[in-house]
Amino acid sequence: MAGAWNYSSPFYIQQLYADIKYNCWELSIGSKERWSEGKHRTLSGGGLTFAPNARPIPQVRIGINEYTTLPQWFNDWVQVKGHMSYGWQTDNAFIRDWMQEAIAKSCYAQNVLFHEKTAFVRIANPNGKGLGVEGGLEMYAQFGGQVYKKDMDGNYYLHRGLPATYKEYIKAFIPMAGGEDSPTSEQTNINGNVLGSWHLIVNYKSENWQIRAYYEHFYEDHSQMLGVSWVPDRNGNKRFLSYHPWQDGMWGMELNLHKGRWIKGVVAEFITSRDQSGPILHNTNNVFKEQISGWDSYYTHYLYQSWQHWGMGMANPQFLAPSYNDDHSMSIPNTRLRSYHVGIEGKPHTAWSYRILASHTRHWGSITDPLPYPMRATCLMVESTYNPTQSAEQGWEVTTTLAYDHSKLIGNNLGGLLTLRKYGILKK
């Protein structure tokens, strides 16, 4: 539980969950902090589809969370993991308060439902050393709820309710078009706000060090998910295979030195999202029958507004969250960017460790609302931790953090954090 001042609620539950494990399977119920797939927990900037910037979403989740060897297959060289979940967003009150100052004709969604699923395969030596390759898919969806719109007098009204029957739960798991009770656009496309990522990771591990190279490709629709789509020609008759090259994504490198002191781990990441399948979107009509599947407009949706929870984006923080919007909209306006991120950590002394994160991003706005000129943002964080007991299971730990932002988009900000943490039992 955490407290807040000048917030929609004086207290809120950050984490409250129960995990039940049986063999390789795990059932998790409740609100629990989780991390991005295939990324370093303390040094990475976070994944393109999911990162722990927003508050956790309460959900019921079942799956295999750790790589598990397929029984008697390929001499234990093939391992799999994956999970699925359904949940619900808890930011209704926050959104209502935030949207009171939004401009006329703004809209927002309430009682939004959440779905998540992943599937990963790894081919590696069962002893954990040597060369290994892993890849997989993660997919998320927002569905159900109600949409409210603001009239010219500044009052919000219920625009429409969105179906949330068992059929919508199935359509979230297997992306399909909405039914007759769904908005027209949901009937011609996919029901709800569906997005996800493909992952490819190459890993080499020795006794003293480990190096990983990874690529994550983000997608908002079929054209970017598969790289190809079957579309009609301009006469609306023949269909042909349209190719959409994967130009956007995250490329990263990770180095871990198992016996290192001053430097134990280094992560470097590069993100580009400027392509978005091109600047034009056109669905087939009677006048111009050729399909043009561009203008992906990452992290945005005409009903659910954006991929966010409690005003914070649920993806990489370089895509600035709605909480930074001066117009109090729930959108993520700056989705076209190029970003560089570096993270370094070490433990020079048995009782003292440090961590440094640095990012530099160049923003172009969005395809529909470009910035007048590219704007840069530079962020730096330095953290120091002192643990005199040298134990992560018992004793006290003190962490001091200093962070600085330099940007015309979010302003120049300086902040600090002091954390006092107790491990183990408080009192016997």
Which labels suit this protein?
6% helix; Porin; 428 residues; 15-stranded antiparallel β-sheet; mainly beta; 3-stranded antiparallel β-sheet; single chain; 4 helices
Structure, described:
By secondary structure, this protein is mostly beta strands. The protein has one domain: Porin (Beta Barrel). 6% of the residues lie in helices and 50% in strands. The protein contains four helices and 28 strands. The strands form seven sheets. A 15-stranded antiparallel beta sheet has the order 3-4-5-6-8-9-12-13-16-17-24-25-26-27-28. A three-stranded antiparallel beta sheet has the order 7-10-11, covered by helices on one side. The chain has a two-stranded antiparallel ribbon with strand order 1-2. A hairpin with a 5-residue loop joins strand 27 and strand 28. The longest helix has 8 residues. The two termini are 23 Å apart. The mean pLDDT is 87.
Layout of secondary structure:
Layout: E1 2-3, E2 11-12, E3 16-22, E4 25-31, E5 59-69, E6 78-88, H1 92-99, E7 107-110, E8 113-124, E9 130-143, E10 146-150, E11 156-161, H2 166-173, H3 184-188, E12 193-205, E13 209-219, H4 222-226, E14 228-232, E15 239-243, E16 249-257, E17 265-272, E18 281-282, E19 292-293, E20 300-301, E21 305-306, E22 308-309, E23 312-313, E24 337-349, E25 352-365, E26 370-386, E27 395-407, E28 413-423
Antiparallel strand pairs: 1-2, 3-4, 4-5, 5-6, 6-8, 7-10, 8-9, 9-12, 10-11, 12-13, 13-16, 14-15, 16-17, 17-24, 18-19, 20-21, 22-23, 24-25, 25-26, 26-27, 27-28
